[in-house]
Amino acid sequence: MPDIDFEFIVIHLPHYGRALLLTLALGLGAILGSLLVGLPGSLILHFRAPVLRRVVAAYVEFSRNTPLLAQLFFLYFGLPAVGIKWSGFTCALTGLTFLGGGYMIEALRAGIEAVGRPQIESALSIGLSRPQIARLVVLPQALASAVPALAANCIFLLKETSVVGIIAVADLMHLTQGLIGLYYKTTESLLLLVAGYVILIVPVSLLFSRLEKAVRRAEFG
Amino acid sequence: MTTTANAPVLIDAACVTKFYDTRKALDNVSLAIHAKEVVVILGPSGCGKSTFLRCLNGLETVQAGSIRFHGRDLARPGTDWRPVRQRIGMVFQSYELFPHLSVRDNLLLGPVHVQKRPRAEALRQAEGLLERVGLADRLDSFPRQLSGGQKQRIAIVRALSMNPEVMLFDEVTAALDPEMVREVLDVILGLARNGMTMVIVTHEMGFARAVADRIVFMDEGRICETNTPVKFFTAPDTDRAKRFLSRFLY
Amino acid sequence: MLHALELLWQNAPLLLDGLWATLGIAAAATFFSIIGGALLGMMRASWNNAIVQAAARAYLELFRVIPILVWLFVFFFAVPAASSLDISGTLAAVTVFSLWGASEMSDIVRGALKTIPQAQYDAGRAIGLSGAQLHLRVILPQAVRRMLPGAINLVTRIIKTTSLVVIVGVVDVVKRSQQIIERTKEPFVLYAFLLLLFFALCHPLSRLSRRLEKRFN
Fold first, then answer.
1. CATH at residue C9
2. Which of A187, C81, C84, C177 is the most exposed place for a label (fewest CB within 10 A)?
3. What ipTM was reported for this prediction?
């Protein structure tokens, strides 16, 4: 083990703080965006809306079967060649949302499908209308059973933010790569990097496992 | 039970025919249900008895025939089932209480959201009905905290709290542990005594005999025999019914 | 369109060379993931020792909390700095992807073993099977069917993850594309090609995984 240069760590702590905030903003933005894509998308798939269903299904397949790295390179370097220019941050947010949207659609759709046909028939038999059934019977149960998958997707997206450094977004990875190149303080930079992700993910992960437990208790006793 | 043959016809199903793809699930089924009558439909599994019941609640579409209820033919496409379902209650084999709602909210869902009745009044009624099925103390429980028998009694109350004119029971004891069957059947028997019109699909032969005004025996999508309970269980008219009944004897 | 195809055709040897590198890393990582995951999964399912279970959980948490790219950096930069071992990008990638893949695979294996009801073990014992026979003839055949969808899905994730190796200097299909872009200034065509290439690799596997899952349910 080489000696750790604590002075280096202290000097660069503020940089890591800023990069952490940026990574967090990106991750939360992507989670929000992908949920906004996911809800209508899953409803379109569930209700088999004509034409739209095919578009959504194709999107889900594409977003889930291509790496974020290739998506980002295409958005950031590919599209400007045909006249579409974006900032790195916009690109990163778009790419992460594009990726996460596909995963969220699947998670929510599976949640909706977990509510069985008999539940819907039982709701029909007391005269509830379709919109009432969706709002009062299906959605609460669907969201509850989708919580574990949604939580996994959120953590997945937070971790995937690590890739955006490749398109010059000043996130934790980008900063680390830069510092290693500049000062050759490999151990210190990587320590700060790992610490950054632990600070980012662990609270979220704990929060979600709390939520999952609460939901499970509410649903199944 | 009471004689009901002269009472007015409430539901009049005539020549109801239903296909699943090419398989005929219901073949020219005609059955008139009189007010205050208790009709029990018996038959081997897959004979179409549950399918017929589901047709009466609009959960299956029929390809031919008519189902007349208050002067309207429900078998026609485009029927608005929502008002009909408020007058024809249904109870399912697997209870299908809403797991995310308390007993109270399960019972109020229909009266408040569908019938737009005042909450306080609906709650009073629900409490009264719970009392009658012996579950007055379960208002704040969740379905997961109840036994199967309790869940099914709540499901019956949920249907009753819409003040229906007819109740449909689809094998409501089939999923229950044996020791819980009785408590559910007692509730249905109580309803029969109070003059509720009911169509019951069941495999409980003793119960069928005790509760029915009329037994309808179905096989292969058709009604084979209609009879009084006494005659059906002692000397059925058809060989098919005889064979069916012999399977329940040791 | 024609121009794009011509461009790709002319550079096909370079792209193919990169594709082999990508697939080689993915294949090696898959191989080690399955072996490591099977061992770890069986251990987690049946070795009820508190220390073993805690160690396994800690191992899984390391990969659940920290992104793979971070691990790639750690192995590529920190291990050589700390130990004077010279680790190539390829070796770092195969190591990290295998360790991560094994943790994921162990979850799949453990999950599949847990779904086999106790009654199956009892029934096997009741007809006199030995422990090994029981596992080989009764439990594993059922469990493997349940593992397949998840395992195939994991392969697609490994393939997608392999795209990260370009960041630690491996000359994979992404790097080759970038080299061609340097020369031809055609980023749109080549990056679109990359997207389609990864899609063509992963999509059939995803479909297979979904079909198997439907069939087994």
1. 1.10.3720.10
2. C84
3. 0.89
C touches which chains (3+ CB pairs under 8 A)?
A: A
Contacts of B145 in chain A (CB under 8 A): 221
**Which domain range does residue C16 map to?**
2-216
DSSP calls for A101-152:
HHHHHHHHHHHHHHS-HHHHHHHHHTT--HHHIIIIIIHHHHHHHHHHHHHH
Contact: B94, A140; criterion CB under 8 Å: no
Tens of pLDDT, residue by residue over A126-174, are: 999 988 998 999 999 999 999 999 999 999 999 999 999 888 788 888 8
Confidence class for position C127, pLDDT limits 50, 70, 90: confident
- Number of C-alpha atoms within 13 angstroms, CB side, residue B73? 10
Question: How far does the CA of residue A154 sit from the closest CA of chain B (Å)?
Answer: 24
Rounded mean pLDDT, A72-101: 92
Question: Among the CATH numbers 2.60.40.10, 3.40.50.300, 1.10.3720.10, 3.40.50.920, which is that of A6-220?
Answer: 1.10.3720.10
Instruction: Locate the chain B residue with the closest alpha carbon to A128.
Output: B114
Q: How many interface pairs between A and C have CB atoms less than 8 angstroms apart?
A: 107
pLDDT at C85 over 80: no
The domain ranges of chain A are 6-220
Q: Distances from the Cα of B61 to the Cαs of B150, B223, C133, in angstroms?
A: 32, 19, 52
Residues of chain A in contact with residue C75, where contact means CB-CB under 8 angstroms, are: none
For residue B26, list its beta bridge partners: B18
DSSP character string of chain A? -PPP-HHHHHHHHHHHHHHHHHHHHHHHHHHHHHHHHHHHHHHHHHTT-TTHHHHHHHHHHHHHSS-HHHHHHIIIIIGGGGT----HHHHHHHHHHHHHHHHHHHHHHHHHHHS-HHHHHHHHHTT--HHHIIIIIIHHHHHHHHHHHHHHHHHHHHHHGGGGGGGT--SHHHHHHHHHHHH--HHHHHHHHHHHHHHHHHHHHHHHHHHHHHHHHHHH-
Among A23, A163, A172, A194, pick the best mutation site for testing chain C contact (most C Cβ within 10 A): A194
**What residues are paired with B225 via a beta bridge?**
B217
Q: Do C66 and A198 touch (CB under 8 A)?
A: yes
The count of structural domains within chain C is: 1
Which positions in chain B touch A122 (Cβ < 8 Å)?
A: 92, 96-98, 155
Establish if A187 touches chain C: CB-CB under 8 angstroms: yes
| pTM recorded for the entire structure | 0.82
